[in-house]
Amino acid sequence: MRLLSSPTSPYARKVRMVLIETGLSDAVTLAPGAPMGSAAEAAAVRSVNPLGKIPALVLDSGEALYDSPVICEYLDQLGTGPRLLPAEGAGRWTALRRQALGDGIADAAFNLVMEHRRPAEQRSAEWLGRWTEAVHNAAAALEDELEAGAFAVDLGAVALAAALGYLDFRLPQIDWRAGRPRLSAWFADFSQRASFAETAPPRS
Ligand SMILES: N[C@@H](CCC(=O)N[C@@H](CS)C(=O)NCC(=O)O)C(=O)O
After folding, report:
1. Best residue among 8, 48, 53, 155 to mutate for probing ligand 1, ranked by most atoms within 8 Å of CB
2. Which atom of ligand 1 lies at the shortest distance from residue 33's CA?
3. How far is residue 197 CA from its own chain's centroid?
4. Dist CA 66 CA 53 (whole Å)
5. In the prediction, which pLDDT does 50 show?
6. Residue 70 Cα, ligand 1 centroid: separation in angstroms?
7. Contact (Cβ atoms closer than 8 angstroms) between residue 5 and residue 54
8. Å from CA of 33 to ligand 1 middle
9. Protein residue closest via CA to atom 6 of ligand 1
10. Measured between alpha carbons, how far is residue 84 from residues 72, 77, 144, 152, 185 in Å?
11. What is the Cβ-side half-sphere exposure of residue 126, based on CA atoms within 13 angstroms?
12. Pocket of ligand 1, beta carbon within 6 A
């Protein structure tokens, strides 16, 4: 299998973390995917995902899977370790909801990054404010949720860690830790996992 990904994408990091957590790293080759690179690079991504987005997983059959929740569930079913996404029951819906929250934080953060790359006079203060608020509201909800107990190590936790890691990487000015000691401690602890450490984005 071949995973089109970039070392900085939070969604690709989530998939790469799942590969490590499920013991499948050797089953997948990482291939660079640059949706916003040269015309040829963007076309290469579109040839497997008509939406032109990464990550995309090309199976040995040639079929491509996207987007990241679909890829993660596929890999989780292939893996031999403990399941990151329970097959049924309350734990499944909690994991999926937390994945949605993590992916939503990544969506808002990615939009913020893209908007900041536009010329200043073309940026929308309204959207910048809306996406920033979404990040803080999600972090506040997670802080409240942690009062009831630690999060399970599941697909939701992996998605949250990838998204918070992306905030630290691209938007350090967003202080999502402020006033959120439980979330800060949870993230510090989860960051110790090999799957997180080994998928860190490049420093430059
Ligand atoms: N919902 C998608 C989001 C993927 C996504 O937006 N990836 C970004 C890279 S971080 C991308 O390829 N963007 C290109 C574009 O939006 O055209 C997923 O979870 O895989």
Report:
1. 53
2. 12
3. 14
4. 8
5. 98
6. 13
7. yes
8. 11
9. 53
10. 9, 9, 23, 9, 21
11. 0
12. 9, 11, 35-36, 52-55, 67-68, 103, 110
**175 CA to centre of own chain:** 19
- How many residues are there in the chain? 204
And the tokens for 39? 């015309």
Which residues have CB under 8 Å from 170's CB, separation 6+? 8, 109, 113
Helical residues (DSSP H) of the chain, grouped into ranges: 10-21, 39-46, 68-78, 90-117, 125-146, 155-170, 181-190, 194-197
Instruction: Find out whether 15 and 73 touch, Cβ atoms under 8 Å.
Output: no
What are the pLDDT tens digits along the chain (204 aa)? 999 999 999 999 999 999 999 999 999 999 999 999 999 999 999 999 999 999 999 999 999 999 999 999 999 999 987 899 999 999 999 999 999 999 999 999 999 999 999 999 999 999 999 999 999 999 999 999 999 999 999 999 999 999 999 999 999 999 999 999 999 999 999 999 999 999 999 986
Provide the token pair at 167. Answer: 């905030």
